[in-house]
Amino acid sequence: MSLLYCARSPAWGNIIAPTEDYATAMSAALDRTDRAILAVLQADGRISNADLAERVSLSPSACLRRVQRLEADGVIAGYAARLDPNKLGLGLQAFVRLQLARHDATTIERFVAKVQGWDEVIACHALTGDMDYLLHVVVRDLEHFSRFLLDRVLHEGDVADVNSSFVLRAVKERGALAPP
User: What CATH number matches the domain at 5-72, 3.40.50.360, 1.10.10.10, 2.60.120.260, 3.30.565.10?
Assistant: First the structure.
């Protein structure tokens, strides 16, 4: 099995990019049973090993070994509970595209560090194109969003441009990955 290539870019932070050989090896290493296990676990991460084994037609011990291998290989990155933001009083979601005022390493590192501390941001992606980042923001209401944007995002002057779009309704959320 190939090793992961890990590059440290001062502009973008730590980036772990699988080499083509690694991606090909991982894809080839996943057989039909592994794919079935992954499909079931993505739909129900709390399923017992015995029930999972039955669903994929394996003995419980063989199923457990496969799951442990998938975890050790990093294919299964973790398990988490999905929360309903509305039940938590977080009724407004927005996608915020923003462009930094400067693109030097210091500004980028400072911005990336700040994003890590913003609880309102549940995902942040570096982009190509005219904007630098896409933030998925979850807040209580429009007033909370306004305070977040003005007091935190725009406060220090690192951001040159912002474009916000509010979510009307979710059409698809948390789709399962289909391993190649």
Answer: 1.10.10.10
